Amino acid sequence: MIIRIDSLTFRYPNGTTALDGVSFSVGAGERVAIVGANGAGKSTLARHLVGIERPASGTIEIDGRRADGLPIAELARTVGFVFQNPDDQLHAASVVKEVGFGPRNLGFPPARRAELVESALRRTGLTQWRDTHPHHLSLGERKRVALASVLAMDTPVVVLDEPTTGQDHASVVLLGNLVDDLAADGRTVLAITHDMDFCVEHFDRVLVLDHGRIAWDGPITGWLAHVAASDDQALELPQLARLGRRLGWEGPVTTVTDFLERLTPESGPAPVTSTVP
Known about the structure:
There is one protein chain. The protein is an alpha/beta fold. It folds into three domains: about 1-80 and about 155-235, P-loop containing nucleotide triphosphate hydrolases (Rossmann fold); about 85-155, no CATH class; about 240-270, no CATH class. Helices cover about 35% and strands about 20% of the residues. The protein has ten helices and ten strands. It has helices at about 40-50, 70-75, 95-105, 110-125, 140-150, 170-185, 195-200, 220-230, 240-245, 255-265; strands spanning about 5-10, 15-25, 30-35, 55-60, 65, 80, 155-160, 190, 205-210, 215-220. It has a six-stranded mixed beta sheet with strand order 6-7-8-3-9-10, sandwiched between helices. A four-stranded antiparallel beta sheet has the order 2-1-4-5, with helices on one face. The relative contact order is 0.14.
């Protein structure tokens, strides 16, 4: 296991308990979506993985080492964190300098650093803006700069905080492909998200937090069935699952292919035709 958390508890100075005995493990190459209502403790949990917050009790192990005592600079070699608000982490005068800061700070050799920077720019669609000041870009583009800066650090764990917020459809597709590629490369991806469609399409496992405790931890299909059978209004089913439910179908619908097959069970998926002349 690359991440192991045992009985993690955290309280803010005002006495609020944000995490209450959280325990779970994540293996290399897993894609885990962390979901839950606002204030459930999702971002607080993520900040523990990079040392921004420190536990009141419990332990965190990352890559076989106790992480709760390591400095942030050391944790950055293993865990890359993309903030929900990119302006919280962007500081350089150009996109290429921003993306190059992490690998340079980690002491990577110049050749490897250049290769990682160019790869990160290409994979996030930012090559044409390499010399642009990040704050001259849109919110969605700045979020991609923040993502590229983490990709360039080549960490085995990548944590994304609300990655699809402020992104257009093309950027969400690009982000989903990146998540799939990272997992295929054996890297672990955790995402805090309210985007249930993105969660279902690109993650294998869901961890649900409720008032600082784990309310559900398991595969996507089991979670969909659980939500569909419950009256919990805090977690909305993805669009296809909601539509299947309205049509009276048994079991959750998870993909477009699944939806089309249920529409035409005898002859297979209906052909997709364009209405554009």
